[in-house]
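Margin note from the TA: students keep mixing up input and output lines. Inputs are the sequences; the output is the structure of the whole complex. Example:
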Amino acid sequence: MMKQFGYNSLKSRTIDYKNINTTLISYIIKNEPSFSSCISCGSCTATCSAANLTFFNIRRLNIQIRLGEFENIRQEIDKCMLCGKCLLVCPRGINTRNVIMLIKKGLVTFNLVE
Amino acid sequence: MNDLFIIAPFTIGLIILLGILIGKYVVWTIQLSQIDKLRILHGFFTVRTLRAIREIFWESLLHRNIWKTNPLLGYMHMSFALGWLLLIIVGHIEAYMQASSLSVSPWIPIFFRYFEHEHFYGARFFAHTMDVLLLYVLSGVVLAYGKRINSKLFGIKRTTKLKPKDRISLIALWSIFPLRLFAESATAALHGNGGFLTSGIVFRYLQVTPNIEYTLWVLYSCSLAIFFITLPFTRYMHIPTEVYYIFLKEYGIKLKKQFNSYSKIQVYSCSRCGICIDACQMHHAQISNNQSVYILKNIRDENLTDRKLYNCLLCGRCEDACPVNINLNDLRISQRIKSSKEYNSSYDFLEYSITEKADVVYFAGCMTHLTPGIKKSILTVLDTAGVNYLFLDKDKGACCGRPLMQAGQIEAAKKLIAYNRQQILESGAHTLLVSCPICYKVFRDDYELGQIDIRHHSEYFLELLHNQKITIRNTQKSIVYHDPCELGRGCKVYEQPRELLQSIGTLKKVKHEKVESLCCSGSLGDLSLSMVERNKIKEQTLEVLLKPNPDILATSCPLCKKTFVKGVDIQVKDIAELVAENIQSN
Amino acid sequence: MIDVLIIGGGIAGIETACSLQELGLETLIIEKEKQIGGHLNNWDTLFPTKRSASEILEYYTEQIRKKSITIYLNTTVTSIRKQDDGSFEVYTSREVSFKSKTVVMAHGFSLFNAQRKEEYGYKIYENVITSADLEQTFKQNNDVFVNPMGKIPERVAFIHCVGSRDEKSGNHYCSKVCCITAVKQAIKVKQLSPQTQVFCFYMDLRLYGRGFEEMYREAQEKWGVQFIRGRLSEVAENIDGSLQLKAEDTLAARPFKMSVDMLVLMVGFEANKSTALFHNSCGVACTESRFIQPRHHHLSANATNIDGLFTAGTSIAPLSVFDTLNHAKAAAFAIHSYITK
């Protein structure tokens, strides 16, 4: 009924911080606390071999996961080659490779994407 | 007295043990791949079998490798293995001599003193010999007690923790020989048939009755039975499995990437001697739950957590130290493969570019791109030597696949391998030059590049030097060389970098080098180590490397270089940079 | 016995000495270089006024002459030892030692060695220089602006936070002055060479001081300096010597490549090596970042854990010239009340 009036498609553009799905972010931070110290400097994405050829952007993944937005993450994360360049350039010493592993594992464990 | 209570526990225990062992080995053998089964068939009637027997003698009985690392521990293991075997053999000879026949009941040699009190020709000699052997085993038992109480006495920092079933088995094993001593001494006190050890010492001041004697023998038999029955379910399974493993290894069976029954045999061959714990550098970061012995234990108990599994540098020091030669690195990776089954990956975005033809293909790899000093030096040397080369991943390149391999994502790695392989083959080059040991390892192990020679730059530059394509100026500076794990233990390249460095300066020795060399802590093999923990490990490694006070700390891996550069005041240089700095064009 | 021995003849040390002299105490400065002034000798202009650094140095040279302050040049302090009577014995490279009631550690900082950030290519690629190198260039030549290859650059990039806020360099702290220095230098480049495009790559812009924000706006509005929020990750060299930068424009959320003719690395502060030496010889407390730990961050920022041992200037943390001079003046008062109490 509501759908007919188009309520479903009127998804608000604003971020609703009260109702964020924190499953994945909590799981990652519990297992890799360094994830929380990201300052979004972008050096990881800049050096990333995949990011230079695709839309894969590990820095932005951090933000999307914080906001509980999981669409496309599954497809994007598949492009990571785990080469470790991001790990080497991160000024905060974030263990990015473990983060990738945890995202992959978390998405499946908590059934966050179909 | 009823002899049944003495004979039965032992016999039942032995039958159960043999039943389980045969059952397990048959299943494991059946589960081996067809090719591996053929390997056993073809190898059986060859010299390989003899070689296996020789190795069993050296390792399973004498424990030569443990002796080399830790003589006291070696003695302990040897006293149990060799001492017990000799007790059995000499015991049987004794029984045959006494009966003047080979047909004696199988339990007679085991409980010989209890059943046979008659004097026979050579009885004294056997009594004394058996006592010597018993004393020998008992000395090992005493050491084992000591090791449990204080493992540091053995130069071992930690020892493995026990589960209830292990504890039962351990107590049974530890009681077998003291009980035998007491039982034989009791019999000797009643019948006077003991040797120097059993005839007097124990029951000199104690009145022995036949009841006491009987009870002791029953207990002895029971302890044997308990040990036999628990053996297949405890770490003592390593005793028969190691023997079986040595045969399979000699027949040329190799560990596969996926966990299979051969992996299982390796897992069960671990004696939990604890040598790998000491070889592991993780303890510098106060990590003491992830060493190989624990991992193998967890695999057996099926309770391995990701945290432990992925927390390992894969440096290979434990593998090198392992007295049983278990492929600890690859076993761990096989578990990672198991654990990361659901991980997908897709690299369709990698475009095949038309590669130019060249004699030599240079693959810098991801890490070298973050160390432009190394990259530039390699190109300088190639230009100076006039090599016709193609810089394959100059602009956009794919990863070699080794980091994925290490993380257990083998299917993903295969995709990158296929991509890079085609690019390399298309160039028509005869040599693939690599400046990163991580790439080098996967190129050698997994790429199947056919006729193409794969060279790390330390090997390649040495060849250029030998062929007088380049000459190098000697700086007279003192240099310490750090062996990268993947190049050293991973690919066994130890001498070429050293020979090259000797033409540049004076090479100084360090405490742990070549096969024993330490890891820089930067390894991509580890997925969960924090920066702080890595730094702690690195500091310990640097302490060893800087001990001889060198002018230059040289290595041949961009990742090692990047790891070290943060922690030292002296120059940290890759071998390529040292060559490029001191090259003289002809 | 002298009243105050000051280690370091940079602006912190000299200012402390001048103030103390005015308060009637006898001072002695020990300077390891052949001249006073420290890092300021290598600097062209100061932010946010853009006034010449030599102006400050001339002022202090004059003060030293007027107040006839004793300075030992070319002398390095090797260790400080506290005596039983509460005084200090200070040992130097000249095989003479000094007895003093109090000691001021005004030995300053070291610049981060940009070679340790290998991916930025300093001393590997010709056109990569540091902010300190650029000041030298400005000092030597105030008319034209060329890159190390002698070419007027089409594009110049300034990289913030080189060796600061970087766990991989071992320095987690902010060096405080590099952001505003980059802004100042960017303006100068534009002044000398208006046709050159100037880019600043930053993680966060920290323009906290008086007049800093104004200078930032000037750079944007008047000079068209472009600020890109993204940290540089890799540099490669093209055949012509220009440099290929790899960074992400994080606000656009896209990685990009840019070719520049010159790269300026804004090198940060590191604790002077002498700090470790003093820590070992007299037990002065240091922070995790290897600078000296003041006794109380707010209430006694010049005293240390050792009575009679004081600090002035950047031996405690990265500070601007402005903050350094204030810290030095405060040191003089702290010492005066310690001696006269």
